[in-house]
Amino acid sequence: MRPPRGLSPDEADLWSRVARTVKPLPRVERPAPSRAAPAPTSMPVQPQPQPKRPKAPPAPPAARPVQPRPTLRPLDRHGLDTSWERKLKGAAIQPDFTLDLHGHSLEAAHARLDCGLSQAAAMGARLVLVITGRPRPVESADRGERRGAIRAKVLDWLAAGPHARSIAAVRGAHRKHGGAGAIYIIMKRPR
Question: H-helix or E-strand containing 127?
Fold first, then answer.
């Protein structure tokens, strides 16, 4: 750690002029509580009503021990039964809902993804096709200006978003449905 540099002559002059204009605040003296014993009198002393003391604030509740969050498997590694996997690999099933995020900014794409998944869930869709655009290498310092940023962020958005518990799995889309530029989101069956 470097020592303070001190004031330049101009700064010292300015500080002294400012310090001369400062007036200290008036001192407020508070009366000390009297602890003197009462003088003896011949008349009976009536007890003085005691001023009500403010109640002490309630003690904070005992802190619960922090439970570690269960480690969740990434959505792109969740297991599906073999019939689903076969249908997805052969494009034998058509998406119930399609959501196109391609060409949007990161903020707009994130909002559109959450809104679209809410709509898909309300419709009872099981297979959602999300078009993200082709993946590109994304650096950690990328702020979304480069191409492929949506594709790089979409799995994080899904895992941390409000619909994470209703997603059964995420898979890459078949070439017929967009290939590397799209993903399938398999929603859990509504209970």
Answer: strand 127-131
**CA nearest to 129, candidates 162, 91, 86, 161:** 91
CA distances (Å), 94 to each of 129, 175, 184, in order?
A: 9, 13, 10
Which residues neighbour 161 within 8 Å (Cβ) at sequence distance 6 or greater? 113, 114, 117
Among 34-43, 101-110, 172-181, the range scoring the smallest mean pLDDT is: 34-43
Q: Residue ranges of the domains in the chain?
A: 75-187
- Whether the full predicted model's pTM is greater than 0.70, yes or no, is no
Q: What percent of the chain has pLDDT over 70?
A: 65
Is the four-CA dihedral 119, 123, 127, 131 of positive or negative sign?
negative
What are the Cα distances from residue 144, in Å, to 48, 130, 137? 73, 18, 12
Q: Indicate the CATH number for domain 75-187.
A: 3.30.1370.110
Spatial neighbors of 33 by CB under 8 A, at least 6 apart, are none
Looking at residues 33-48, what average pLDDT do you find? Answer: 59
Residue closest to 152 by CA, chosen among 173, 181, 128, 125: 181
